[in-house]
Write the C-alpha cells for this entry.
Amino acid sequence: MHGGTSSTGLVGAIRYDLKRLHESWMALFFPRQRSNQGGVLGKWEPSTTSGRVAYRGWSAVGTAVVALLYPLTLFGFAARYYTRKIDGTATRLGVVGVVLLSLLVWGGLTALARLRFSTDGFLAVGAAGGVATVAAVLAYLSGTRGGRFSTVLLAYPFAMTALFLPPVVAALYSPTLSEVIFPKSYTLAVWLLDNPLDLWGINTFLREQFTLEGANYAAMWFGLSVPTGWFLGLLVTLADVVRPKGE
C-alpha cells in the first residue's frame, strides 16, 4: 500500500485510488496530470477559455467513469493478487515445470477417466488434457516473454482454456459432473443470450444455429475462455494503473 494512505486507513486508501484513477483518465488527453509527474512545474492546467471548458468537461466525464470503474478496480486488486501468486509459481517452475505440473493434474484426470468412462470418454478427456497442457505452456510463454499487451491478449485466454476445458469434457461422460456443470452452464448461457448478447440479433442467430447439448457445452466454454481471459487481464491492468507494482 502506498505510504501516503497507510496512516489514513480505508477512507484514505479509497481517496488515493479514486484520485489516481481520475488522474489517469485526465492523462489520456492532457499532459502532466499525475501527481508524480508534475515536478516543480506542478499539474498542467489550460490557459485559454476553450481549453478550460474542455478540461473541466473531460474532468466531469471522468468523475462518472471513475465511479463506474472503481468497483471493477477492486475486483482487479483481488485478481492481481492471485495472478501474481500463479505467475510467481510458474516463473519458479519454468516451462518444463509447467508442462510437468499440467501433465500431472490432467494426467490424473485422464487416468481416472480410463477407469470410469468408456474408451471414447477416455480419449476425449485425454485430448482435452493435451489441449489444456498446450494452452498452459502458451499462457506461460506469452505471459513471461511478452509485455502487457501479449499478456492480456494471449496469456489470460490461454490460461482460462487450460482451466475450463478438461472438466467440461469430463462432464460429458460423468453423470456426477454433468449434474453440476451443465445446469449452471445452461443458466449462464441463457443469461448471456438475454443480456450482453441481446443486440444486433446475435442471440437469435446463436439460438437458431446451436443447441446447448453434448459437445456444444465444451465449445461454449472454449469460446468463453477468450473474453473471460481478456476481461480478467483488463481488470488486472486497471489495478496496475491505480496502484503500480511496489505500492
About this structure: Residues 71-242 form one domain. Residues 1-6 have pLDDT under 50 and may be disordered. The CA atoms of residues 96 and 125 lie 22 Å apart.
